[in-house]
Amino acid sequence: MGMLEAILLTVATAATPLLLAAIGELVSERSGVLNLGVEGMMIMGAVTGFGVALTTGSPWLGVFAAIAVGALFSLLFAFLTLTLVTNQVATGLALTLLGLGLSGMLGEGFVGRPGVKLTAIDIPVLSDLPLVGKLVFGQDPLFYVSIALTAAVAYFLFYTRAGLTLRSVGDNHGSAHALGIRVILIRYLAVMFGGACAGLAGAYLSLVYTPQWVENMTAGRGWIALALVVFASWRPWRVFAGAYLFGAVTIGQLHAQALGFGIPSQLLSSLPYLATIVVLVLISRNRRLTMVNTPASLGRPFVPDR
Questions:
Q1: Do 34 and 92 touch, CB atoms closer than 8 A?
Q2: Each residue of 269-293: pLDDT tens digit?
Q3: CB count, 10 Å around CB of 115?
Q4: 3-class DSSP state for residue 262?
Q5: In the chain, which end has fewer C-beta atoms inside a 10 angstrom radius, N or C?
Q6: 2-292, what's its fold?
């Protein structure tokens, strides 16, 4: 029972940053903007959150700073792609490279220093329940934020007029513009929301997952989050399920190494990324499944008539 509880707790911890980053990217892509800079925004959120928390002694200030930096980085991407109409793929890749390089420079003085951990919530009696106690009632606050964000995004997209407007912009920005919808403004807001979520995911890594700063500590999680959106066919609750599936794969390979299975550790460490490739290949073979929820204007530039 204790082993099962420990595994479930670590799966939830591994899945939370993926869920936070993916749910933000889902909103951005639903508006028709493909931002490949998730990895860069995550790593900037990680170094900013760690640095601010270490300097001030408050992990919550670190969390808010990481959200702000993620939003600012996404604002740079939005200005380049939506205002200057640069290529979204190339700009997103450049944003990732910028984030990786800048975070390494800013975090050089933080390497090896103990961080300030965001403490878990402890509800008396409920947290002591067997198996479900720590898993449901004793998690860190950002775990609950990730679930609340998923529910809020699902409700917003499919049960509100504003969500319908955002989806219409992603499906046909020309028709939306003709109806008087401010396409560029909506896309700016969607991209900034995605950046804020990516920054929050980065803060989770450096303040909860491993409360320390290590260069390139995102380790490709931003790319997995991007794949999750496609894997989930742009549906929030499917993103939730996919994040926990990939979290289970990540933790599974760690436990397999600990149990001494006769498999090279390098192969086990690559399992989450191999699973990502396999899933994307399987999805791409079913064109009908891929096209069901894909925003028709995804990645397409929009220049309003003047």
A1: yes
A2: 677 777 777 777 777 676 666 666 7
A3: 20
A4: coil
A5: C
A6: ABC transporter involved in vitamin B12 uptake, BtuC (1.10.3470)
